[in-house]
């Protein structure tokens, strides 16, 4: 914008906020106190300040424990641990005693030495620790110099906070009734500020950079955490529009909330199961938060990616067991590794393929690498003893692949039982239908599996021969094209015929336009990312099965 | 007593194993020192442990003094022998 009315950053936390800006001042580190101080007195001041900061953090931790997920609380523990670091303390005391500097100056000098040291290790994880260190020591310095970092608890009227960066300690204390938004100059989508803001439900825009200078205290702005924008000097019509969005969002939120703990049932009583995807362990909390009726697609790739070696049986088993136990009696569909193609492992040499999506991936890779596959199969089989497990093979093309995979399953089950390890008697085995060939021979595959789950993303891309991320052919990526619907119908018909069930685990499963058709074609289970569940459940509650069946038949003809 | 121990963790002695190491060492009455390369640091301090930047499979020398040094050494050996990724 030429008049600098609209500035953009990263959309870090969704929602819209209207309020006056409050700039959060950083702790002033221009300290005096180079020499001539009484070590005894400074030691007392230091101890008192440390003690106060420690109890502040402990209080914050207790307050936060009600509103945050467990893992964000670990940030507080790591701060508490740093305050008590013996070397940090020893060196601060040394500086006070030997150089006769003020306590605040000693803290600043020593922490700079450590922060520099951590930065030089060039590891991202160390960087984070270095930020924690700066955060904690800033608090001690603020205590020692009577600077109030930000009295966020004193804020009375709604505000939007503006800061270079907010520390996790600061963000954690924010009250969403007062703080209507957060704007920072730095920070990414997965930075501390963004994570905390999302967990508190406060809209946020981060990474504003230089444009921060345009934000002045007390100015009224509209912050859009979905678009990642800040609108300065809004006029009455813009304000009215933003208020409308806020009330719509709130209304939708309240309405959808009522669907979180309901079962998924059509108006005429047909029960559908909506599961959540799980791509990392943290998704488990989300699944519960949004009322998932199971895990519909457990993507096991995270166990293999960003690692230095293949995960062993025990590591895998403990993760599968955690998920299965937490969900029990709800079903958990574990997809065996979908490695290969574009998902390469850093620790494995693999030949470069001209066409990875038509190459060695999914079950093809697993059957080619039985040693690696068997480790995963054993780990999953052991987890079956702890709940309701369904095993799913990805990228199946032929019946021979299913036979081979099942043979390995039977052999490993036998091995485990011989070792005296428990395996459940009633886990299910199914395949992901994403290769058009598998849909076309669904009649042949159905007798040898317990379920189908249609991976619509790849099924569409393979059927239409169109890469959906390729802009120039993305117009061909049409979920509701008759070619796709006929393939889906072949799968559900084969499933019905053989008395097994069909689910959908691609993006179509959460698409409100596709859901009526999918159910009309006979789909019984849907998997989507957890936050999408309430809206899908609400839609389904308004549908009549008879209607859906006749409409789907009409569409197909 | 002194012992050479290999760091098994996939990313070396980073935040998580170092934190656990410092926590365990912190319970010991006597001194715990860790050497890597030509640097020796206080094993009870997370900050100095991290500054060693020990990579995967790096070999550190752990020195434990005082009473029950052997038990402590065993505990610390276990910490370094685990994979935390």
Entry keywords:
heterodimer; A: 557 residues; alpha/beta; 8-stranded mixed beta sheet; 8-stranded parallel beta barrel; globular; B: 85 residues; 4-stranded antiparallel beta sheet
Proportion of helical residues of chain B: 25-40%
The rough form of chain B would be described as globular
Structural class by secondary-structure content of chain B: alpha+beta
Proportion of strand residues of chain A = 5-15%
- DSSP summary: helix tally of chain A: 20
Low-confidence stretches of chain B: none
Descriptive notes:
- The complex is a heterodimer of chains A (557) and B (85).
- Helices cover 45% and strands 14% of the residues of chain A.
- The model of chain A has no long low-confidence stretch (mean pLDDT 89).
- Chain A has an 8-stranded mixed sheet with strand order 1-8-7-3-4-5-6-2.
- With 557 residues, chain A is an alpha/beta fold.
- In chain A, β15 (501-504), α18 and β16 form a beta-alpha-beta unit.
- Chain B is of the alpha+beta class and 85 residues long.
- Chain B is 35% helix and 24% strand.
- Chain B has 3 helices and 4 strands; from the N terminus they run βαββαβα.
- Chain B has helices at residues 15-26, 46-51, 69-80, and strands at residues 2-6, 32-36, 39-42, 59-64.
- Chain B has a 4-stranded antiparallel sheet, covered by helices on one side.
- In chain B, β2 and β3 (39-42) form a beta hairpin.
- In chain B, α1 runs antiparallel to α3.
- Classes of the chains: A alpha/beta (557), B alpha+beta (85).
Provide a short characterization of the protein structure.
Chain A has 557 residues and is of the alpha/beta class. Chain A has helices spanning 39-64, 70-83, 86-99, 103-119, 124-144, 168-172, 192-200, 236-257, 283-289, 313-327, 363-368, 370-383, 399-418, 436-440, 442-445, 456-463, 482-497, 515-520, 533-541, 545-556, and strands at residues 6-8, 10-13, 16-23, 159-163, 179-184, 204-206, 220-224, 229-232, 273-278, 295-299, 331-335, 388-393, 428-433, 451-454, 501-504, 525-528.
């Amino acid at each position: 914008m030429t008049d600098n009315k609209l500035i953009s950053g990263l959309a870090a936390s969704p929602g819209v906020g209207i309020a006056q800006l409050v700039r959060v001042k950083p702790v002033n580190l221009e300290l005096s106190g180079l020499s001539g101080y009484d070590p005894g007195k400074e030691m007392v001041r230091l101890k008192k300040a440390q003690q106060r900061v420690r109890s502040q953090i402990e209080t914050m931790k207790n307050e936060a424990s009600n509103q945050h997920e467990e893992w964000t609380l670990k940030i507080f523990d790591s701060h508490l641990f740093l305050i008590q670091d013996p070397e940090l303390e020893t060196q601060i005391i040394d500086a006070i005693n030997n150089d006769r500097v003020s306590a605040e100056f000693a803290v600043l000098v020593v922490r700079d030495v450590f922060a520099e040291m951590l930065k030089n290790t060039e590891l991202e994880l160390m960087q984070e620790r270095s930020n924690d260190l700066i955060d904690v020591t800033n608090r001690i310095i603020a205590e020692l110099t009577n600077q109030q970092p930000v009295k966020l608890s004193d804020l009375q009227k709604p505000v939007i906070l503006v800061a270079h960066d907010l520390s996790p300690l600061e963000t954690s204390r924010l009250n969403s009734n007062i703080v209507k938004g957060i704007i920072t100059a730095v920070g990414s989508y997965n930075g501390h500020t963004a994570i905390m803001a999302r967990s508190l439900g406060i809209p946020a825009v981060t990474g504003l950079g230089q444009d921060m200078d345009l934000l002045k205290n007390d100015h009224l702005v509209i912050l859009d955490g979905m678009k990642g924008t800040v609108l300065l000097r809004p006029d009455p019509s813009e304000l009215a529009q933003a208020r409308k969005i806020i009330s719509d969002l709130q209304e939708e939120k309240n309405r959808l909330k009522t669907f979180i703990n309901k079962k998924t049932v059509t108006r005429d009583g047909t029960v559908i199961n909506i599961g959540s995807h799980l791509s990392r362990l943290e998704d488990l909390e989300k699944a519960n938060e949004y009322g998932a009726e199971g895990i519909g697609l457990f993507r096991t790739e995270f166990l293999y990616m960003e690692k230095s070696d293949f995960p062993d049986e025990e590591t895998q088993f403990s993760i599968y067991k955690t998920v299965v136990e937490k969900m029990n009696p709800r079903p958990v569909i574990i997809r065996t590794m979908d490695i290969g193609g574009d998902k390469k492992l850093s620790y494995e040499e693999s030949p470069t393929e001209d066409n990875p999506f038509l190459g060695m991936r999914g079950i093809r890779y697993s059957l080619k690498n039985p040693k690696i596959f068997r480790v995963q199969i054993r780990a999953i089989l052991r987890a079956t003893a702890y709940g309701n497990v369904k095993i799913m093979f990805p990228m199946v093309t032929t019946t021979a692949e299913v036979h081979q995979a099942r043979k390995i399953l039977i052999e490993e089950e036998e091995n485990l039982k011989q070792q005296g390890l428990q395996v459940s008697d009633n886990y299910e085995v199914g395949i992901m239908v994403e290769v058009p060939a598998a849909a076309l021979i669904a009649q042949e595959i159905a007798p040898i599996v317990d379920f189908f789950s249609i991976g619509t993303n790849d099924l569409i891309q393979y059927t239409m021969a169109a890469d959906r991320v390729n802009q120039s052919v993305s117009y061909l990526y049409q979920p509701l094209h008759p070619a796709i619907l006929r393939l889906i119908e072949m799968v559900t018909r084969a499933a019905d015929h053989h008395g097994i069930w069909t689910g959908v685990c691609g993006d179509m499963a959460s698409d409100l336009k596709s859901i009526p058709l999918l159910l009309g074609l006979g789909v019984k289970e849907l998997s989507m990312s957890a936050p999408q569940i309430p809206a899908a459940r609400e839609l389904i509650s308004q549908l009549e099965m008879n209607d859906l069946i006749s409409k789907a038949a009409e569409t197909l003809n | 007593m002194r012992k050479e121990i290999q760091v098994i963790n996939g990313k070396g002695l980073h935040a998580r194993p170092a934190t656990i190491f410092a926590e365990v060492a912190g319970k010991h009455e006597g001194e715990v020192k860790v050497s890597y390369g030509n640097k020796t640091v206080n094993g009870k301090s997370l900050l100095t442990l991290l500054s060693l930047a020990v990579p995967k499979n790096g070999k550190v020398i752990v020195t434990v003094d005082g009473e029950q040094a052997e038990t402590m050494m065993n505990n610390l050996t276990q910490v370094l022998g685990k994979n935390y990724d």
